[in-house]
From TrEMBL:
GO terms for molecular function: DNA-binding transcription factor activity, RNA polymerase II-specific; RNA polymerase II cis-regulatory region sequence-specific DNA binding; zinc ion binding. This is C2H2-type domain-containing protein. Belongs to the krueppel C2H2-type zinc-finger protein family. It holds the Pfam family zf-C2H2. InterPro entries: Znf_C2H2_sf, Znf_C2H2_type. The keyword Kinase does not apply. Keywords: DNA-binding, Metal-binding, Nucleus, Repeat, Transcription, Transcription regulation, Zinc, Zinc-finger. One of its GO terms (cellular component) is chromatin. Its main location: nucleus.
């Protein structure tokens, strides 16, 4: 019996090998990447990763693995069984390792920091994935529209847009009822109804519900207007504003913003709002 963790073994040699975990000694080192292990067997398994051979394939999704154990662990995802539950928030996981990673979120500790933008992460893997944004490399490409992404997860989320399915509906009020493809999109949208605007511009004090809107707003203060109309030469801070502006030249009014007092129509919602001020003058 191990006097440190209470685990029992049939043979003395197995106990001795096990105790290397507690000692922190890792005498077996990979000559390809330098990673060290307490046991020779773990080093041997690790070295298979460098071989690139993935002999074990999942018959449900086709994903391949180097080790049989990794395939077995992966198959728990398809079973729907999630025996590992977080005692802080109740979220369940198929794998013990996933629960362990998740619990770091509750600790609030973010030890891994990006040396390019300063953003911090709880997991080393999350930092590594984040750094792809700075590299400019976008290896994951949508085969429907050609848009590319730095992360596989972002491509997967994007592809839901093409499905047209919007299962997340806003139930805040009868007037809204807006639906979203992603749960995160609904959550972000609901900030509008809450009235909470946590993102404030430190130059003019204007507040926003979304960080993205604050970022766009701050471009106004920069004075930079990189988007130019090729018809009249007018410059804009944002590409969206240029796109909306071009509707004036086309004469096309796709959104049909109509004044309910006089019936006049406008290409832009902002133009309608300004027009309505005429009717408000006493």
């Amino acid at each position: 019996i191990c006097d440190l963790c209470g685990k029992s073994f049939t043979q003395a040699g197995a106990l001795k090998t096990h105790q290397l975990i507690h000692s922190g000694v890792k005498p077996y080192s990979c000559d390809l990447c330098g990673k060290s292990f307490a046991w020779a067997g773990n080093l041997k398994k690790h070295q298979l990763i460098h071989s690139g051979v993935k002999s074990y394939s999942c018959d449900l999704c086709g994903k391949s693995f180097t080790l049989a154990g990794a395939l077995k662990t992966h198959q728990l995802i398809h079973s729907g069984v999630k025996p590992y539950s977080c005692d802080l928030c109740g979220k369940s996981f198929a794998r013990a390792g996933d629960l362990k990673k998740h619990q770091l979120i509750h600790s609030g500790v973010k030890s891994y920091s990006c040396d390019l933008c300063g953003k911090s992460f709880t997991l080393a893997g999350a930092l590594k994935t984040h750094q792809l944004i700075h590299s400019g490399v976008k290896p994951y490409r949508c085969d429907l529209c050609g848009k590319s992404f730095a992360r596989a997860g972002d491509l997967k989320k994007h592809q839901l847009i093409h499905s047209g399915v919007k299962p997340y509906s806003c139930d805040f009020c009868d007037l809204c009822g807006k639906s979203f493809t992603l749960a995160g999109g609904l959550k972000t949208h609901q900030l509008i109804h809450s009235g909470v605007k946590p993102y404030m511009c430190d130059l003019c004090g204007k507040s926003f519900a979304w960080a993205g809107d604050l970022k766009k707003h701050q471009l106004i203060h920069s004075g930079v207007k990189p988007y130019s109309c090729d018809l009249c030469g007018k410059w804009f801070t944002q590409a969206e504003n240029l796109k909306t502006h071009k509707l004036i030249h086309s004469g096309f009014k796709p959104y049909t913003y109509s004044c309910d007092l006089c019936g006049k129509t406008f290409a832009r919602a902002g133009a309608l709002k300004k027009h309505q001020l005429i009717h408000s003058v006493v």
